[in-house]
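Chapter summary example: a protein plus nicotinamide-adenine-dinucleotide.
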Amino acid sequence: MKKILVSGGAGYIGSHTVQALAEAGYGPVVLDSLITGHREAVGKDIPFYQGDITDEGLVSEIIKKESISAGIHFAARSLVGESVQKPDLYFEENTAKTNRFVNTLLQCGVNKIVFSSTAAAYGNPKEVPIPEESKTEPINPYGASKLMIEQSLYWLEQAYGLKWMALRYFNAAGAAWDGSLGEDHTPETHLIPLVLKTALEQREAISIFGTDYDTPDGTCIRDYIHVLDLAEAHIRALETLEQGVACGAYNVGTGTGYSVREVIAMAKGVTGIDMPILEAPRREGDPDILVAKVEKIQRVLSWQARYSDLETIIKTAWRWHQKHPHGYGK
Ligand SMILES: NC(=O)c1ccc[n+]([C@@H]2O[C@H](COP(=O)([O-])OP(=O)(O)OC[C@H]3O[C@@H](n4cnc5c(N)ncnc54)[C@H](O)[C@@H]3O)[C@@H](O)[C@H]2O)c1
């Protein structure tokens, strides 16, 4: 059985990927500081180590003890607004810490890594859908901190033969089929959980930031990707790295976008609850439309989104929120 070290495996996307890895016959091993993650999100039968990715002693001990063959690296800070306030924190927590983590992996003989990158690496898109070759000009430190990691992985490949893939996720959403795992971020900044929390009356209204964008209904359009599809993309990425296929960055999205109003309308349909809406001014730095071009990942990784239609995304997320109205262990 191939053992995979999953940093950030107790987080939202990490926990779903850990479960998918175990179901696919891999042996996931989780390393998580629990700074934003939840111990309850990782099954009791999965080896779990609480610690920071920069704890070289711990990371090398895990690699040796668990005979790790590859890494999937989710651990990061990912609040865009916070990154603008504290860019130093993001370059330290994301860029510098990843550099040390990957260095430890390499020192211990682990030379394959799948890394969580982001559509934020592109900044304002020059063309939509956005192809991977598009210019990367992040407009916030979060996106910049992730892009710098991609660049460092490229140079580590040239110097030491690191095999890497950076998956540039668009908007992760949805939850496990049975509602046992789902999104529990504090603060929550993502649209779908915020809409569903409004349906549960944990929030007074759902805000729409900007109704005058250059889109059919005036609200921003985003590409939502089901967390289970994302999890599968990581497994395909590992398999493809094993086969020695080219390293690099891959978009993970559907190629289809939904507007904020469409998301709210679908959430009303799924929940049967008519939540109050608050129309607010635009937020700085929100592009009109962010939609992935997905031809590369479909072709090279033979991966295709299967669960990412908006109804399935919201139905699964709603099941999670109904079962866990206050998140994990609360
Ligand atoms: N959620 C999205 O829509 C989205 C979109 C694009 C990219 N991403 C990226 O995907 C990854 C996972 O996102 P998520 O939404 O699951 O976030 P999350 O906050 O739920 O998960 C991150 C996990 O990493 C852990 N962690 C953070 N720093 C650590 C450190 N130094 N050492 C050990 N563990 C640490 C946290 O405790 C948490 O469990 C992140 O890298 C994020 O930037 C997420």
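Key point: The chain is about 40% helix and 20% strand.
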